[in-house]
Amino acid sequence: MSPDTDVAAIVEELTLAEAIELTVGTSDPTARATGYLAGVPRLDVPPIRLVDGPLGVRIPGETSTAFPAPLAVSAAFDADLAREHGAALGRETRGKDQDVLLAPGLNVIRVPHNGRNFEYYSEDPVLTASTAAAVVEGIQSQDVVATPKHYVANNQETDRAALDVDVGERALRELYLAPFRATVDAGAGAVMSSYNGLDGTPMSEHRRLLTDVLKEEWGFSGFVVSDWFATREAAPAATGGMDVEMPGVSMLELLSGGEQGGEDEGGDGGFSPADIDFPEEFASGMPDPESVEGFREALPGAVERGEVPRKRVFDMAQRVLTAAEDVGVFDDDRADGAVDTEAHRELARRVAIRGSVLLENDGVLPLDEADDVALIGPNVDEAVLGGGGSSETTPVVETSPIEGIEERAAGSVTVAHGLPPVEGFSMFDFGDDEGEEGEDGHGSEPGEEYSVDDAAAAAADADVAVVVVRDVASEATDREDLRLPDRQDELIEAVAAANDRTVVALNTSGPIEVPWREDVAAVLEQWYPGQAHGHALAAVLYGDEDPGGRLPVTFAPEGTYPTDGDERRFPGVEGTVHYEEGVFVGYRHFDATDATPTYPFGHGESYADVAYRDAAIDGDAVTVDVANVGDRDGREVVQVYVRPQAVEGVDRPVREFAGAASVGIEAGEVASVRVPIDDLALQRYDPADGWTVDPGEYTVEVARSAGDVRAELSLER
Ligand code: BGC
Question: Is residue 28 a contact partner of residue 99, using CB atoms and an 8 Å limit?
Answer without folding.
Answer: no
